[in-house]
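Dear Dr. L.,

I hope this message finds you well. Following up on our conversation about the binding site, I have prepared a predicted three-dimensional model of the protein together with nicotinamide-adenine-dinucleotide. For your records, I am including the exact sequence and ligand specification that went into the calculation, followed by the structure tokens. Please feel free to forward this to your student if that is useful.
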Amino acid sequence: MDDAFRFADELGPLKLVHIWRPAVGLRAVVAVDNVACGPAVGGVRMAPDVSTEEAFRLARAMTLKNAAAGLPHGGGKSVIVADPKMPLADKERLIRAFAAAIADMVEYIPGPDMGTDELTMGWIKDENGRAVGLPREVGGIPLDEIGATGFGLAAAIDVAAEHIGMPISGARVVIQGFGSVGKHAARLLADKGAVLVGASDTQGTVADENGLDVAALTALKAAGRPLRDHPSGRKLGGDAVIDIPCEIWIPAARPDVINAGNVSRLHARLVAQGANIPCTADAEETLARRGILVLPDFIANAGGVICAATEYQGGTEVAAFAAIDEKIRANTRALLAQVREKGALPRSAALALATARVERAMQTRRWEHAG
Ligand code: NAD
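The resulting structure of the complex is given below.
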């Protein structure tokens, strides 16, 4: 009995539900962490090696991210133990069985994550009436296509640059990962006069201190080609993206890319976290000691979830951009004020801000606060 409560603390999880449907081979876990701010929004992850612990940890991350973004949503997450590359008809059967199994869990709104996409969300909505990240044809706002997260990241950078007295125009930018987040951040910063001096993908880095052509790099990726096919600039290994001196360094690929072993190689004034947990905790402390400002992931990359929340409320693309801009600027300002006044690490300040919001919301709810 105790084991079922091994994750329980003052915030949650409210429910940890195991779903087993032998007839279709469905094995899934839904973690609804906290719903004090509103119904939980969080992705459905499909992978062969997901676990209950992963579901809980990701759900908690969503509680904090949604609260930090000032959204009327709590945090949840679900994991389905399966190979997402299975034949589409089998995937549809499994997803529909999952959607039917969670039909009564009205406090949880599924969204896309690793191994699921817009089409998957369409099936879930069709089955039980609740999902975000839907195809445009059924009321969705295609957040990756419109660059919701990159747009929010650029807004956070704008506020932070002002905070450290650094003009964006002329600032050198380096981006690790030139996908949905990285390429849109590059475009928007270039529009403000910043100069992209380095970018990387899984196949390597391209660097040019005189500036890279963002549109040309984006076109290469759209054609399914690597950045190193860009005709100009130096071609380097993937890891070399860390060594390129710049004012703004943007991780937009994988977790833990900046760690104790390589943090000393990073020379920038600002690190804006597009990716989730791209720096280890000790690397973030080192960066702070070296006077490099870090904009933590769950403040800076919240554009996607703000867009999803706007979609859920029936809002338009225009409304989504307005909400992202307003919320991310306000939250970055609040965070930086704490950093300045209390000398706190940006991540600790952001966590405190988010936790305080959840706790205030819990005070308004029956059964949900300790005293
Ligand atoms: P994506 O798949 O569209 O793009 C990822 C890019 O990173 C690709 O260009 C890929 O080639 C590159 N890449 C992968 N491994 C790399 C490596 N080791 N070195 C350099 N480049 C590498 O993904 P995305 O949607 O842009 O997401 C990027 C990151 O941002 C992920 O950590 C994701 O969890 C996070 N994130 C995304 C969103 C969103 O709205 N898409 C929101 C919040 C956080």
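In brief: The chain has a mean pLDDT of 95.

With kind regards,
A. P.
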